[in-house]
Each structure stands twice: as structure tokens, then as C-alpha cells.
Specification:
The complex is a heterotrimer of chains A (318), B (301) and C (373).
Chain A lengths: L2 H19 L2 H26 L8 H18 L3 H23 L4 H20 L12 E2 L5 E2 L2 E2 L3 H23 L2 H11 L1 H6 L4 H27 L1 E2 L6 H14 L4 H17 L7 H15 L19 H5 L1
Antiparallel strand pairs in A: 1-4, 2-3
Helix pairs in contact in A: 2-6, 2-9, 2-10, 2-11, 3-4, 3-5, 3-9, 4-9, 7-9, 10-11
Chain B lengths: L1 H31 L6 H19 L1 H5 L1 H28 L7 H23 L4 E2 L9 E4 L2 E4 H23 L1 H11 L1 H6 L4 H27 L1 E2 L3 H16 L4 H21 L5 H15 L14
Antiparallel strand pairs in B: 1-4, 2-3
Chain C lengths: L1 H16 L7 E8 L6 H20 L7 E8 L4 H12 L5 E3 L4 H13 L3 E4 L15 E3 L4 H14 L4 E6 L3 H16 L3 E7 L8 H10 L3 E4 L3 H14 L5 E3 L7 H6 L1 H4 L3 E4 L9 H14 L6 H20 L4 H11 L3 E3 L2 E3 L13 E5 L5 E3 L1
Parallel strand pairs in C: 1-2, 1-3, 3-4, 4-5, 6-7, 6-8, 8-9, 9-10
Antiparallel strand pairs in C: 10-13, 11-12, 13-14
Classes of the chains: A mainly alpha (318), B mainly alpha (301), C alpha/beta (373).
């Protein structure tokens, strides 16, 4: 047990008890933070680990949310069953759009992903296929039901969202430290060298994209059932920018940093509410200041370390 | 056919403005490899400063329309340029050695800051430039009436762009800018003061954005604190279509984007206009991954 | 990690600091967009409601206690609005006024309903908001179908045959455009153009060029005044003379400023009456007080409707001598009849919609004034 682990446990315990001493409003703020944290973690896979400049993550989130909303309101399929489907559809969509553009470099990829999120939003606004409800969006989405228990109040959602966040952290942690995660980091550091060492860089990039998209689709499902009404303005380019900022500001590649980043980017505007119409001004200035003082993000990822104790001298020589 | 030509001229007018803003993006990108998301807001600041100066100084009454507007434009360009230099000093210089994306986040923060400070200073309402400053004449071209102002607008954009191109290609400072764009380290070794070059770039880019701002204000009349975001995004697309970092590319990209928007809207659908523009962008990038003219042609000269 | 712990403690500390404070006041919430693209509307709403509350307090307040307005910013976006609504619900308020956009209001409806808080929206015209059977929800704005009906009747009544409809793809404008289109089609009118512009742009000459090519007798634009002003201005520049008619989102004096007097002349729009047109004492007093305090006239009619929401709620509290939501809701539904408001007489039906014929036709004259037809 090192100090870091102890602090993590304390934070988890404090969070777990949070609904007991916070009012509904602050619990709902925490819910929003949780939702953005999961989204940012899924973006982190693409942006932080693989180094793909992706500023259109809200597109996948939108696909997940609309899949859930449409199937739930038209065919009354329970929300929980729709979660895997939302993820899969978002993943398929991610594959289809990423396939032709995955070879684009840096900023060109950035602008294309912005294009994708805008095209998705415009398609939703224009009521594509007559099923998205146009700018009105879709309403009357039901609440998730787990073993007979309907998740309804913000306090219920708090545990639903944060437990999902916990599961995501665990899975992403496993993935990060797998062969797959190492390959992604290699691509980020040096695309050509990775290719030269036999890493199929396009294939890995595409896989990272799909995993990120699937996870954003899951969150879309949670969001739709939490709000019970969704409309295209919740999935604008600006939402993608917020996610992008969370990842970079928190510390790209570092899960602790990204969760803290969500607290700052989603929480600060709420704390600044007392400044009324000046609150976004202060928020913008705070963003610049935080970046200047922590250019690598608030909690940058630690370099990978490997325990070499098991290598005994004799064995190394063999 | 008449509809087509009419829409083409509409597209050219819009494209001229996009191109002018795109130049600022491209110049900054060329030297710093930074997507300056605050650039659109510098454009808004230009529009608002232009309005303030226009109303408070009364230049147009004192020295005539053409001279007044020209002087006004120079003043706004100077002021916005200075804001650009300050922006670079405060928000970007400390991040020059950091990851490229850190500066992008700083730029986004600066963008939020600028837009909201405009809102707090000038109010959230739409502000309006005085009417009847510009002459309302129309010129007959091929039997169509085209407002003189549109032609002047496009002409002004082209003059500014050509001046910039010549400056970068023919002067000593321009050569230094190109050198810094290729390799800052090597430029330093050649005795170029890279910090000074970056300041110059951050003066010129925002100044052009400010000029575009006052042109939009004078011609369209209505300005708003949030307008920079949309114009900035469009200008960024224009810069990328042409090949980011490339001055003729920004001009070409702006014009193409404007024309694609108006023709796409007119012949396909207005509601899908921006989606069409983005689709064209994506197709161009799939076919030519670094834009039509390629990145930074200047470096090969 | 120490830093993280410290900042966490700071955040937790702030939670407590921001908790509800209890006092001997009657709290009324105001949910409005103070930032974002509708900031100008929200800031007007805040001005109007605080002005009315100050006046009320100067006269001795409500039931012997002061009225306090708790303002929350909804940012014009559903997610922020839902948070703002949670924040208001936690503050022991009697009712809430607002908000502006329909989808933004919709995101807050369930929260206020669950907390049993009266909500009186002012700018949300989407039909379905009052079709859900929510007991505590009211609105002072008319519905899209009402305006659509008036618009369709007016357009066909004037003998226009070829009608172009232009909207901007926002919830409100699209709703009104769809409503009007289907009614017009039933009446056998010829819709020669139906499309959306992109709000927030400056150059609409492309869409005007196509509109002109469609050769309509009249253009009905259902969007907002900034775009309407630009359309009028650029239409004039093209030398095209076609009657333009707008919905109530164009009812804002800034329309004339943007278009210019010569381009705005002859423009017509449908709208509930603004205080300037009403002879009632309430409207006149309000205008005088507003001018005295802020130095100009209120902007759009929707911001003024938030004032009506405040008046309806405080009238109900006064009459029932209660701050209980059920009592108040019952009063507003059944007993409030023809209360003199800033935009005419106010009563609500069982759904919470405003009752009565509201719409008037206005025309802009050569001096840029809105003249009731």
C-alpha cells in the first residue's frame, strides 16, 4: 500500500458517501462529472494513448443516445438491454467513419473529426430518416431498471454512473497495461518506428477508435435515460471540445488526471455560478492559467516502469 | 444559368471573408504549428472595436468615406494586432515547449475569455453598425445587378492577401518568417530573432482577422459576441482545404469553401449546407491528405 | 497528491458554503440564459423580473415578507438547465419563472414536477410541453399550433397563392413552420419553397437568391429577429420587393436597427401585444418604471412574458395567502381569470396553457415603429 493507493481509497470512500451529505443539486453535479469522466476516459484511449487528434467524440455519444432513445420510445425495449446495442452501433459507426480517414495526420484528422460531429448534429437536426425528431429531439425515454429497481433519483443515478465509471477505470487499466496498450503508446511516440517493428499501426489506431466509440455509445445510453429527453444541441461540436479539453488539461494518458479534469471542467462553471453572467469569462481565464502552470496536464501520466527484480544476473546472461 | 452565376458571386463574397480570416490561421500555424482557436474571437474584437471607433471618432464625416474607412481599418488592425501579441505572450509563449495540444486548450480558454469579455463590455444584444456609410450602388455584370460593395469587399480581401504574400515572399522579414516556419532552431542559429518573428506573425494574423471583422461589420451591419466562433471554424476549414500553413492555399480554400457552400445550398439543400461543406472537406482530405496546395509550399521556394 | 487532497477539501468546503440559506423571505426562482447564444433574452428576463420584484417589495412584499428572486443561469443548453433546476429545487423556492427555449424548458420540467414546484415558462412554445399532464407547469407564451393557425388564416385570408416558408431549424421556428405548412396545405395553398437557413451567419444572399427564383407571393419567416433583419436588409439590396411576414420571434426593436428603416418598412409579423400597445395601467406603469431604471425599452416580447409569469404567481400567492404548490396550482388553473398582465389579460386552462386570442398583426412603418394592424 503506497501513499497514492491510500489517497485513492480515501477519495473513493468520500465519493461513496457523498450523496449522504450533499443535496440533490450537488449530487447531480457529480453525476454530470461522472458522465463526462467516462466519456473523457473513452476519448483518452484515442487521443491520450494513441495520439490521434480527435475532436468529434460527441458524434459517437450521440449515436449511442439516439439508438437508445429511438428504440426505447418506439419499441419499448428496456434501457438496460439497449446499452450493449448502443455501444455496438456507435462502434460500427466509429469503424465506418474512421476507416477512410485513419491515415490522416494530426491536424487534418482533427478537422475531419470536427466535420463528422457537425454532420451528425446537422443530420439529427434535419430529422434524418424521420426518426430523430429534428431539433425537438426525443422525449419520454424511460428510466433504467435493474433487478426490479428503477433508477430515478439523482442519488440512484450517482451510484449507477460512478459504479460504471469504476468498471471503466478497471477495464481501461487492464487494457492500458496490455500488449495492446503498449502498441498504442508506441504508435503515439513514433508511428514509423512502430510500423517498422511490425506493429500494424492503422489496424491498432482503428481498434482504439472503435473501443472509444463503443464506450461513448454506452455513455449515450446512460445520458439518454438520465435526461429522459435528448436533443441535438447536447451533442454539438462544443461538447466534443469540452471532452478534448478534459483529456488534455487533466493529463493526456493519465486516468487520475482525467477524472480530476472532469471535476474541474464540469464542476468549476457550477462553482462560479455566483459570478452570474461573468462565470464563463472566469472559466476561460482559469483554463489558460491552469494550462500555463501545468503544461503537461494537471496529473501527467507516469512513464511506464517495469519491475526487473525477477531478472537474476545469471539468467540475464543466458 | 443566371441562378448559377448569381450563386457563384454570392459564394465569392462569402469566400473572400473566409479567406481573409483563414490567412491569420495559416500564418500562425505555419510558424507555430498551433491551431489558434481564439482567432475567430480576435475577428469579433475587430468588429466591435471598429464600431466603437466609428461611433466615437466620426472619421467618416471628417475626412470622407474612403479615407475614413481606410484609416479606421488601419487603427483596428493595429489594435487587434497588439491584442494578438499580448495573447501570444500570455497564453502561448509559456507553452511553446509543451505538448502541442496544451496550447490548443489554452487557445480554447482564450476564446471563451474573449467572447465573454465582449459580452460583458458591449452587452449580449446584437450591435449594429450605422447604415448608409457605404454607398449603395450596384454594378451591371452580364445583365445581373451586383452590389458594388460586394465587389469592393472581394477586392479588398485580395489586396490584403496579395500584400501579405509579397511581404512574406519578397522582404527580409518575410524570409525570416519562412525560415522560422521551417525550423526554429536552425533559424535561431542563422541569427534570426525567433521571438520577434513570432510576435510579428501574431501581429499580422490577428490584424487581418480584425480587418475582416470590420469589413463584416460595415457590410452586413449586425455583429454579435459569439459570431467569431462560427467564422473562425469556417476559416479553419478553409485553411485546411487549401493546405494549412500555405498562404495561397488559404485564399484558394476560402474561395472554394464559400462557393461550395452557396452552390451546395442552392442546388441540394439549405438545411444541409454546412454538412455538405464538411463532406466536401472530408473528400478533399481523403484524396489529398494535406490539402489542395499541400502544406507550406513556401518552404520549398 | 497532497495538492489533490487539499483541493478536494476546498471543493467539499464549498459544497457546504453554497448550501441553502434560510430566511424570512418568499423565494421565487428565475431560470434564464445569462450566458450562451440567448444571453440577451435571459438578461432582459432578469431585468424585468427583478424590477417587478423590487416594485412589489416597495409596496410591502407578499404576505408580509419580502420577495427574493433567485436567479440561475441555464446557459441555453438542456444539460446546464437540468443542473440549474436541481439547484433551484434545493433552495426552498415557491415557484420558478422560465425558461426561454422549449428543449431547455423540457429538460427541467420533470425536476420541478417531482419537487412539486410551480413552473411558469415564458418562451417555450413547443406544443408537447403542456400535453404531458403536468400539474405544476404553466406558460405565459402561446403555443406553436395557435400561432400556426393564426398565420395560416392570415396568409390565405390575404389571398396569397404562392407561399414560401423559411425557418432556421431551431425547435421553435421549425415547429411553427411545420404547423403552418400543414395547415396551409389543407387549405390548398401552394408552398413553393420550404427550407431552413443556418442561424448565426451574416450572409443570406444565397438563400434569398433561391427564394426569389421560386417566385413566391409572400415569404413567411418563422425564425428570430437577427436573421430576419439581415434577410430584409439583403433583400432590399437585391432590389427584390416581396412581402415578408415573420413570427413572434421577430418582435424585437433591434430588428429595425439591423435591417435599417428603409429595408424594414412594410415588414409584418404576428405577435402577442407588447406593453407599448396596451392601454392598461399595469402596462404603462411597467414601461415607465423600466425606462426609468434601465434607460430603454424591453426587447423581445418573450422576455416580457417572464414578467407576466411573475405577476401571475405573485397574484396567486396573494389571493390564496399560501405558498403551497397544490393550492397555487389549483388557483392558477381554475380561479385566476383575466388577470391584467403586461401582455394583456392572463388566464390558464387545465393544461396550463394561456387562454385567449393573443395574436395581433403588426406592420413596420417608415419610421421603424411597430404599428398594430
Amino acid at each position: 500500500m503506497n501513499r497514492k493507493r491510500i489517497i485513492d481509497i480515501i477519495i473513493i470512500l468520500v465519493l461513496a458517501c457523498a450523496p449522504l451529505f450533499l443535496n440533490t443539486y450537488w449530487v447531480d453535479v457529480l453525476n454530470n462529472i461522472g458522465i463526462y469522466a467516462i466519456l473523457a476516459l473513452s476519448l483518452n484511449f484515442i487521443l491520450g494513448h494513441t495520439g490521434l487528434f480527435h475532436m468529434g467524440h460527441a458524434a459517437f455519444y450521440a449515436i449511442g443516445a439516439y439508438t437508445t432513445a429511438i428504440l426505447n420510445t418506439m419499441y419499448h425495449i428496456p434501457i438496460i438491454w439497449l446499452m450493449p446495442l448502443s455501444g455496438v452501433l456507435a462502434g460500427i459507426f466509429g469503424y465506418l467513419v474512421a476507416r477512410p480517414i485513419i491515415h490522416l495526420r494530426g491536424d487534418y484528422l482533427l478537422i475531419v473529426t470536427i466535420g463528422i460531429v457537425e454532420i451528425v448534429r446537422i443530420a439529427l437536426v434535419n430529422n434524418i430518416f424521420g426518426i430523430t425528431g429534428g431539433s425537438n429531439g426525443i422525449f419520454g425515454i424511460s428510466r433504467p431498471k435493474l433487478w426490479g429497481f428503477v433508477i430515478r433519483r439523482p442519488q440512484d443515478f450517482f451510484y449507477y454512473i460512478w459504479i460504471f465509471l469504476g468498471i471503466s477505470v478497471y477495464l481501461f487499466y487492464r487494457l492500458e497495461n496490455s500488449r495492446f496498450g503498449r502498441a498504442l503508446n508506441y504508435i503515439k511516440e513514433d508511428d514509423l518506428a512502430a510500423e517498422g517493428s511490425g506493429v500494424d499501426s492503422s489496424g491498432y489506431k482503428l481498434k482504439a477508435f472503435i473501443i472509444g466509440a463503443i464506450w461513448a455509445g454506452f455513455v449515450g445510453n446512460i445520458y439518454a435515460s438520465k435526461m429522459t429527453i435528448i436533443s441535438p444541441e447536447s451533442f454539438s461540436f462544443w461538447e466534443s471540445v469540452i471532452l478534448f479539453v478534459i483529456v488534455i488539461l487533466g493529463g493526456s494518458g493519465s486516468m487520475r488526471g482525467i477524472i480530476l479534469g472532469s471535476f474541474l471542467i464540469i464542476g468549476l462553471p457550477e462553482l462560479f455560478r455566483q459570478f452570474a453572467s461573468a462565470r464563463m469569462l472566469i472559466f476561460g481565464a482559469a483554463m489558460v492559467v491552469m494550462m500555463i502552470f501545468r503544461p503537461q496536464g494537471i496529473i501527467p501520466p507516469k512513464p511506464r516502469t517495469y519491475n526487473l527484480d525477477f531478472l537474476k544476473l545469471g539468467e540475464a546472461e543466458k | 444559368m443566371e441562378l448559377f452565376i448569381q450563386q457563384l458571386t454570392n459564394g465569392l463574397a462569402i469566400g473572400g471573408i473566409y479567406a481573409l480570416i483563414a490567412l491569420g490561421y495559416t500564418m500562425v500555424y505555419g510558424v507555430m504549428k498551433l491551431i489558434n482557436f481564439a482567432h475567430g474571437d480576435l475577428f469579433s474584437i475587430g468588429a466591435y472595436l471598429g464600431l466603437t471607433l466609428l461611433l466615437s471618432l466620426g472619421l467618416v464625416d471628417k475626412i470622407g468615406v474612403l479615407g475614413g474607412i481606410l484609416l479606421l481599418m488601419l487603427m483596428v488592425m493595429g489594435l487587434v494586432g497588439i491584442i494578438g501579441i499580448i495573447l501570444e505572450r500570455v497564453a502561448y509563449r509559456p507553452l511553446r515547449k509543451a505538448d502541442r495540444l496544451s496550447a490548443v486548450v489554452s487557445a480554447l480558454g482564450a476564446s471563451i475569455f474573449f467572447a465573454n469579455s465582449l459580452m460583458l463590455i458591449y452587452g449580449a444584444k446584437f450591435r449594429v453598425y450605422p447604415h448608409n456609410i457605404l454607398p449603395k450602388m450596384a454594378v451591371d455584370i452580364l445583365g445581373m445587378k451586383i452590389p458594388l460593395i460586394r465587389i469592393l469587399l472581394l477586392l479588398a480581401s485580395f489586396i490584403l492577401m496579395t500584400a501579405l504574400y509579397l511581404f512574406v515572399q519578397k522582404t527580409k522579414t518575410g524570409t525570416a518568417i519562412r525560415a522560422a516556419a521551417i525550423d526554429q532552431g536552425a533559424a535561431k542559429l542563422m541569427g534570426i530573432n525567433v521571438n520577434k518573428i513570432i510576435s510579428i506573425v501574431f501581429f499580422i494574423g490577428p490584424a487581418l482577422g480584425g480587418a475582416a471583422g470590420i469589413m463584416v461589420g460595415l457590410y452586413y451591419g449586425q455583429i454579435n459576441f459569439l459570431m467569431g466562433w462560427l467564422y473562425g471554424l469556417k476559416a479553419f476549414i478553409a485553411a485546411v482545404i487549401g493546405g494549412i500553413g500555405n498562404i495561397p492555399g488559404a485564399m484558394l480554400g476560402g474561395i472554394i469553401l464559400g462557393v461550395v457552400e452557396s452552390l451546395g445550398a442552392a442546388y441540394v439543400s439549405f438545411a444541409w449546407k454546412d454538412a455538405i461543406a464538411f463532406l466536401v472537406l472530408i473528400i478533399i482530405l481523403i484524396v489529398r491528405p494535406t490539402g489542395i496546395l499541400g502544406e507550406r509550399v513556401a518552404e520549398k521556394v | 497528491m497532497k495538492k489533490t487532497l487539499v483541493s478536494l477539501l476546498v471543493v467539499v468546503g464549498l459544497f457546504f458554503n453554497f448550501g441553502p440559506a434560510f430566511g424570512k423571505t418568499i423565494k421565487i426562482g428565475l431560470l434564464c440564459p445569462l450566458t450562451g447564444s440567448w444571453a440577451s433574452e435571459g438578461q432582459d428576463m432578469e431585468k424585468i423580473v427583478t424590477l417587478l420584484a423590487d416594485e412589489l417589495n416597495a409596496k410591502g412584499g407578499l404576505l408580509g415578507s419580502e420577495v427574493e428572486i433567485v436567479v440561475e443561469d441555464d446557459g441555453g443548453d438542456p444539460r446546464t438547465a437540468a443542473l440549474a433546476a436541481q439547484r433551484l429545487s434545493a433552495q426552498d423556492i415557491v415557484g420558478v419563472i422560465g425558461t426561454y427555449g422549449s428543449s431547455v424548458t423540457e429538460a427541467t420540467q420533470a425536476i420541478f414536477d417531482e419537487a412539486k414546484i410551480i413552473q411558469i415558462a415564458n418562451g417555450s412554445t413547443a406544443i408537447r410541453l403542456t400535453e404531458k399532464g403536468l400539474k405544476y407547469f404553466f406558460r405565459t407564451s402561446p403555443r406553436d399550433d395557435e400561432q400556426g393557425r393564426v398565420a395560416a388564416n392570415y396568409l390565405t385570408g390575404k389571398g396569397f397563392k404562392r407561399i414560401a416558408i423559411l425557418h432556421d431549424n431551431t425547435t421553435y421556428a421549425k415547429g411553427l413552420a411545420d404547423e403552418t405548412k400543414s395547415l396551409l396545405e389543407k387549405k390548398g395553398a401552394n408552398i413553393v419553397f420550404y427550407d431552413a437557413l443556418t442561424p448565426g451567419e451574416r450572409d443570406y444572399s444565397a438563400i434569398l437568391t433561391n427564394l426569389k427564383a421560386a417566385n413566391p407571393d409572400v415569404v413567411f419567416f418563422t425564425g428570430y429577429y437577427p436573421e430576419a433583419g439581415l434577410l430584409l436588409r439583403q433583400k432590399k439590396e437585391m432590389g427584390w420587393n416581396v412581402p415578408f411576414i415573420g413570427g413572434d420571434a421577430t418582435n424585437n426593436p433591434d430588428l429595425v436597427k439591423i435591417a435599417g428603416k428603409d429595408a424594414a418598412e412594410g415588414f409584418m409579423f404576428l405577435s402577442p401585444p407588447v406593453p407599448q400597445d396596451l392601454d392598461s395601467k399595469e402596462a404603462k406603469d411597467f414601461l415607465a418604471a423600466y425606462k426609468k431604471k434601465y434607460g430603454d425599452l424591453p426587447g423581445s416580447v418573450w422576455a416580457v412574458l417572464s414578467g407576466d409569469g411573475f405577476l401571475a404567481l405573485t397574484t396567486a400567492i396573494k389571493a390564496t395567502k399560501s405558498t403551497d404548490s397544490d393550492v397555487l396550482a389549483d388557483y392558477l388553473h381554475n380561479k385566476l381569470k383575466d388577470m391584467p398582465g403586461l401582455t394583456g389579460k392572463i388566464s390558464f386552462d387545465s393544461k396550463g396553457d394561456r387562454v385567449g386570442d393573443l395574436y395581433r398583426i403588426y406592420k413596420v412603418d417608415a419610421n421603424g415603429n411597430f404599428v398594430l394592424q
